[in-house]
Write a structure and sequence with these properties.
The complex is a heterodimer.
Chain A: H1 3-18, H2 27-51, E1 57-62, E2 68-72, H3 75-98, H4 105-124, H5 128-146, H6 152-182, H7 196-202, H8 205-220, H9 232-238, H10 241-267, H11 269-272, H12 276-298, H13 302-322, H14 326-357, H15 368-371, H16 373-387, H17 393-407, H18 413-440, H19 458-476, H20 478-492
Helix pairs in contact in A: 1-2, 1-4, 2-3, 2-4, 3-4, 3-10, 3-14, 3-19, 4-5, 4-10, 5-6, 5-10, 6-8, 6-9, 8-10, 9-10, 9-13, 10-13, 10-14, 12-13, 12-18, 13-14, 13-17, 13-18, 14-16, 14-17, 14-19, 14-20, 16-18, 16-19, 17-18, 17-19
Chain B: H1 2-18, H2 22-50, E1 53-57, E2 64-68, H3 70-97, H4 103-122, H5 126-145, H6 150-181, H7 186-194, H8 198-201, H9 203-220, H10 229-236, H11 239-265, H12 267-271, H13 275-298, H14 303-324, H15 327-358, H16 369-372, H17 374-388, H18 394-408, H19 415-438, H20 441-445, H21 456-474, H22 477-491
Chain lengths: 493, 495
């Protein structure tokens, strides 16, 4: 029993569940309680990532003779668990202030705190059934966050979220039964454990390929990949801003992680590389990248625009994954980091504006930079990072994505991919920058003499600033990250 | 020991009836089912260490034999333990549904029903099985009618008539088998069928006989579209009766059917004969039941009817598993018998508690119930999640077994209905949970905050059932091993 692995999974869940029974009615006490929980959790995750060797594992339960629930640490789990643990801390502090405006604090913190445990569970999963368990738990535990405001619109969005998630997970599960039959083990082993002889011998090669494709599409639901993306633009914006931030920034990555696990840790790239499955997946991701950007460009509701942007950006990551080339894979990992931090900043700043000024449409944001300078500065730097202007993290990741696509042996997509990414980058600039421009330079008719400074307080600005520093600096000090991802890539190719 | 169980239950039944006092009748029922559960467990331990127990009595044409192997023990444990928990739960619930004067009669029926169900499973000779089936039909219809409302009488009569139709079909099948094999017990019939050349000469007899038995069992076990009696009977019966009917009664007939198909005929012959076609039909009908049962459940507004239609779908799973015709398919079906028994009895008792406390059966008016009855709704949530097939609950293990059986037997297309059915389950269980915990209506009615929770001591059997759902969800290994070895014994009958 390696308790250190179990702790960050179980601890937040227990602490979350206890929020209501402990009757933490006093705001101050509740804040200390939640803050201690997420910080301790982050420290444990960090300690695990540093001290635990690759492959450290523990088996929790044997559901039956074949299926066991086990946790394990490897490169991908380190990456995702640290991202989740850290972003949860920033979002928690931000929530302390923001949630005053939403109400139902106890319910919010119950689910918010518990969710991080489930996410660590997903990143630590040692096999597909464990991942599936936490994946379903994640759906059930996050949908109260989506419908937190309980307006008709948010309840509808919550239901849509549930239905799509269940459809996605069920499709993935159906594929999983195939993987379980044709892989040596359901455990995640770098490079995959597919028994190719058995697949070809059974005469069901095509069927198996279809099932792998379906598994990936099913898990792609959480990552907002076409065709199961439609819930995301509804569900993410209606949640309270810090919840939207982690939904978009972190939870979408769980879909990505599941796909990486299926492709690189179960089936193996050798089987998929160069097949029609890869081309279908590349087309789907590129289509999603383009479609998401276009829809974001058209969208006038601020948070919904950001949600469409997530649809597009997560598929950047997925595109990198689907190139099935080490450089593309490193690009995907870098973009996971970049998008996770940046999308948090964007949603948190949108939330700050809603919190102070109650402005939800992008057209209303004229002069917001005068009124809330720190917020808009953070927003602007994050936008620049997302567009991919050097030296921010976004540039580095897109560089790797594009070179990976060019080096990979994927025919026509080697050129189409970078072209779409570039177009989408222009669109990203098109939908993010006008807010910054109009925010700082509202034009002549703006009442320059009358505006009031309405910056939000420390709870909200400090997380924003920390995240912005990371988003910018991750591009400058990219070598350690890149090296770390290269070591992961070296194990799976 | 098998005889001891049957005799104990029947004597207990008579005692409960003749005592004419509702309190005494309750105590008798509780004690008798508790002893039954203990005997069943002891018997299981004896059988797993000492092998099958066979008891013969009578001679000539009416010679009867009882054979108790692992499968029979498995069922005896389900009947014993779950029966005990349901009877325990009924202690505090039954007076809500059944008049005081009728309570002794009610427990007479319940105990008689449990006794005859055990007999259906234990008897090896088909005459004994048939008599037990008939008796159990009457007792089962009785525990529906005993509520003494017009709708119950109608539902009970519908149930009884279709049940008797089912038994007659089974009887006709048995007669044909007798003509062909000159045997009236499963072993003799099995020996004859498994003899070289028999299935060549007389395969038509056997297949027709099994077609009749299948259609008879379809009525008895509510296989779609022969389920029409089930929603009325299970939906209107007193809640403990509904729990017994769906989690125990249906299963006895299915196990009898499994013993006939996989014991008397066996996997090898199935694979290479016309029986395969028959089982294919069973499989396809099972799939249709899985989908249609769930679709019908989605359309319900009455909580108990919804759960009843869910049973129709779950029976579909079991018949699909049987229809696979492989050892793993049979194992999945047997495991699902356990899964469904534990989960569905809990769900019906929870539904009964809700109706009892709020006098409301309408699903649309259950908003906010999670605040009023937190434990009850938590139990409902566990049952619902298990039915959907979320890991850590027994339903997931069941789904896993079916999927492994499907992939192992190369009937890949069945994964599609299996997945769709899981989704449909989510579509009717989750809204209830969501409405209960996040909805408002019921709260508004009873402001200021007033708990409607039943006392924990009354909820204890329900909680134990939920614990069962989790235990068989996280540690199904031992049960699976037991069933696998039981199936091995079953398939060697008559060899």
């Amino acid at each position: 029993m390696n308790i250190a692995l179990l702790f960050p999974v179980v601890f937040p869940i227990i602490m979350g569940v206890l929020v209501q029974p402990l009757r933490l009615h006093d705001r101050k006490t509740r804040q200390i309680y939640v803050a201690t929980t997420v910080i301790i959790n982050f420290l444990v995750v960090l300690a695990n990532a540093i001290t635990q060797p690759d492959g450290a594992s523990m088996t929790l339960l044997h559901l039956n003779r074949v299926v066991d629930i086990s946790l394990q640490i490897d490169g991908m789990s380190r990456l995702i668990s640290i991202i989740a643990g850290f972003l949860w801390c920033t979002a928690a502090f931000y929530s302390f202030e923001y949630i005053k405006h939403e109400g139902r604090d106890e319910r919010y913190f119950t689910f918010f705190t518990a969710t991080v445990g489930v996410l660590i569970g997903i990143s630590y999963s040692a096999n597909l059934q464990t991942l599936y368990l936490f994946y379903e738990m994640m759906t059930l535990i996050t949908f109260p966050l989506v419908m937190h405001s309980m307006t008709e619109q948010s309840v509808k969005a919550g239901k849509k979220y549930l239905i799509y998630s269940f459809v996605g997970a069920t499709i993935a599960l159906a594929g999983f039964f195939f993987l379980a039959e044709f892989c040596e083990t359901t455990n995640f082993v770098a490079g995959g454990t597919l028994m190719l002889d058995k697949v070809t011998g059974s005469g069901h090669l095509l069927l198996f390929q279809v099932m792998v494709l379906l598994t990936i599409i099913g898990f792609g639901c959480k990552g907002g990949m076409f065709p199961l993306h439609a819930w995301l633009p509804n569900a993410h914006p209606v949640a309270p801003a810090p919840a939207s931030a982690v939904l978009s920034g972190v939870i979408t990555k769980m879909g990505v992680l599941a796909i990486i696990r299926v492709i690189y840790y179960m089936v193996g790239v050798e089987f998929l590389r160069g097949t029609w499955v890869q081309y279908v997946l590349l087309s789907l991701t590129l289509y999603t990248v383009f479609m998401g950007s276009m829809l974001a460009f058209k969208e006038k509701l601020f948070k919904k625009r950001l949600a469409y942007s997530s649809v597009s950006q997560v598929s950047y990551v997925l595109f990198g994954v689907m190139t099935m080339h080490p450089v593309g894979f490193v690009g995907a990992c870098l973009h996971i980091v970049a998008h996770a931090t940046v999308k948090n900043i964007l949603f948190l700043s949108a939330g700050a504006i809603i919190y102070r000024r109650h402005k939800t449409y992008v057209t209303e944001l004229k002069g917001i930079g005068k009124e809330m300078p720190i917020t808009l500065w953070c927003y602007s730097l994050a936008s620049i990072a997302l567009i991919g202007i050097p030296p921010t993290g976004g540039f580095e990741s897109k560089w790797f994505l594009a070179t990976g696509a060019l080096q990979a042996n994927i025919g026509f997509f080697s050129y189409l991919g970078p072209a779409v990414l570039l177009t989408s980058a222009f669109l990203t600039a098109g939908y993010l920058l006008p807010i910054m421009a109009k925010g700082f330079f509202p034009g002549e008719d703006y009442p320059y003499d009358k505006f009031q400074k309405t910056e939000v307080n420390m709870y909200m600005t400090v997380p924003l600033i920390i995240l912005t520093v990371i988003a910018v600096c991750s591009g400058i000090f990219t070598n350690p990250l890149g090296n770390f991802f290269s070591t992961i890539a070296a194990t799976i190719f | 020991m098998g005889i001891a169980i049957i005799v104990l239950l029947l004597v207990g039944a008579v005692a409960a009836w003749v005592c004419k006092n509702d309190k005494t009748a309750r105590m008798i029922a509780l004690v008798v089912t508790a002893i039954d559960a203990v005997i069943a467990v002891v018997m299981t331990m004896n059988v797993s260490s000492g092998g099958e127990q066979v008891i013969r009595f009578g001679s000539g044409f009416i010679a009867q034999s009882i054979r108790i192997g692992k499968i029979e023990c498995f069922m005896a444990c389900i009947f014993g333990i779950i029966g005990f928990l349901i009877v325990w739960a009924s202690m505090s619930m039954i007076s809500h549904d059944v008049e005081k004067d009728l309570i002794p009669f009610y427990y007479f029926l319940v105990l008689a029903l449990l006794g005859t169900l055990n007999a259906v499973v234990f008897f090896e000779s088909l005459i004994g099985v048939f008599v037990s089936i008939e008796l159990s039909s009457f007792a089962a219809a009785g525990i529906v009618i005993v509520k003494n409302q017009t709708e119950n009488v109608h539902a009970g009569l519908k149930y009884l008539s279709l049940s008797i139709l089912g038994s007659s079909l089974v009887l006709m099948g048995v007669v044909i088998l007798y003509v062909a094999t000159k045997g009236l017990d499963i072993t003799t019939i099995g020996t004859a069928i498994k003899a070289a050349g028999f299935m060549g000469e007389k395969s038509a007899y056997v297949i027709w006989a099994f077609a009749l038995i299948t259609s008879g069992v379809a009525f008895k076990a509510a296989l779609f579209p022969c389920h029409i009696w089930l929603p009325d009977a299970h939906g209107t019966a007193p809640s403990p009766s509904s729990a017994i009917l769906s989690s125990l009664v249906l299963k006895a007939y299915i196990v009898f059917y499994m013993k006939m198909v996989f014991g008397a005929v066996g996997f090898d012959i199935i694979a290479g004969s016309g029986m395969r076609i028959l089982l294919n039909v069973v499989m396809v009908v099972g799939v249709v039941a899985m989908i249609c049962g769930s679709v019908l459940a989605i359309m319900q507004t009455d909580i108990k009817r919804m759960i009843a239609y869910s049973s129709v779908a779950q029976m579909g799973y079991i018949f699909m598993g049987i229809g696979l015709g492989t050892e793993f398919g049979l194992f999945a079906a047997l495991f699902h018998i356990l899964a469904h028994a534990v989960t569905k009895s809990g769900l019906f008792l929870v539904a009964g508690s809700i109706i009892e406390q709020t006098h409301n059966r309408d699903l649309n008016k259950m908003g906010g119930l999670g605040k009023l009855m937190p434990i009850t709704m938590a139990l409902f949530t566990i049952g619902g999640l298990s039915m959907i097939g979320i890991p850590l609950f027994v339903g997931f293990n069941s789904k896993w077994n079916f999927a492994t059986g499907i992939v192992g037997s190369s009937n890949y297309w069945l994964l599609i209905p299996l997945s769709i059915s899981a989704l449909l389950n989510a579509l009717y269980y989750l809204p209830v949970v969501i409405r209960a915990f996040f909805g408002k209506e019921a709260q508004e009615i009873t402001e200021p905050f007033a708990s409607k929770e039943r006392p924990v001591k009354d909820l204890l059997p329900l909680i134990l059932l939920a614990v069962g759902v989790v235990i068989f969800g996280v540690a199904a290994g031992p049960v699976s091993d037991f069933l696998h070895s039981g199936i091995e014994v079953l398939s060697n009958i008559g060899l």
